[in-house]
């Protein structure tokens, strides 16, 4: 990457990774609820700024909206589970719009099968884990987002994998509401899976958009 691009754009990725890492380690500290909420939202919030500045196209702006709504969801979840879920639901709808605008011309049968599995399996597993119809409805949008990401022209081993990691993160949250309620596993894996997924999505989409200008 040229020196100018490094100075102008990498700092937002570094800021995102730094904020997300700090949040993971200090989230249990008595820092004050407001500071923790802002720190939690900063990780993906900086990815939104990265997307906005990195590509000035409609798709770049749409990606920034996806990340911005997710950052809002991260913060709202600390106040109300339904509000946070609503913000993420909107984020998934925006992400599906982005991916459908950038559909892949040809896809193998196995790739289509995995997309269908993500679309249908995500809400089914979510309902089995949480036993809640509202969770299943949200998970339908989550699965739709992942399926559309997998069928888009964006690289599957970055954007597709990122979307799958997002699904895994939310499934762990739902498992914490049920069979893993007394397990430490969700607490250790939810945030790393979620942020890694968002980072892969943001960088994968931007890389593709810049390459096709």
UniProtKB/TrEMBL annotation:
<feature type="transmembrane region" description="Helical">
    <location>
        <begin position="12"/>
        <end position="29"/>
    </location>
</feature>
<keyword id="KW-0812">Transmembrane</keyword>
<feature type="transmembrane region" description="Helical">
    <location>
        <begin position="112"/>
        <end position="129"/>
    </location>
</feature>
<keyword id="KW-1133">Transmembrane helix</keyword>
<feature type="transmembrane region" description="Helical">
    <location>
        <begin position="35"/>
        <end position="52"/>
    </location>
</feature>
<dbReference type="GO" id="GO:0016020">
    <property type="term" value="C:membrane"/>
</dbReference>
<dbReference type="InterPro" id="IPR012506">
    <property type="entry name" value="TMEM86B-like"/>
</dbReference>
<feature type="transmembrane region" description="Helical">
    <location>
        <begin position="135"/>
        <end position="152"/>
    </location>
</feature>
<feature type="transmembrane region" description="Helical">
    <location>
        <begin position="59"/>
        <end position="76"/>
    </location>
</feature>
<feature type="transmembrane region" description="Helical">
    <location>
        <begin position="189"/>
        <end position="209"/>
    </location>
</feature>
<comment type="similarity">
    <text>Belongs to the TMEM86 family.</text>
</comment>
<keyword id="KW-0472">Membrane</keyword>
<feature type="transmembrane region" description="Helical">
    <location>
        <begin position="159"/>
        <end position="177"/>
    </location>
</feature>
<feature type="transmembrane region" description="Helical">
    <location>
        <begin position="82"/>
        <end position="100"/>
    </location>
</feature>
<dbReference type="Pfam" id="PF07947">
    <property type="entry name" value="YhhN"/>
</dbReference>
<protein>
    <submittedName>
        <fullName>Lysoplasmalogenase</fullName>
    </submittedName>
</protein>
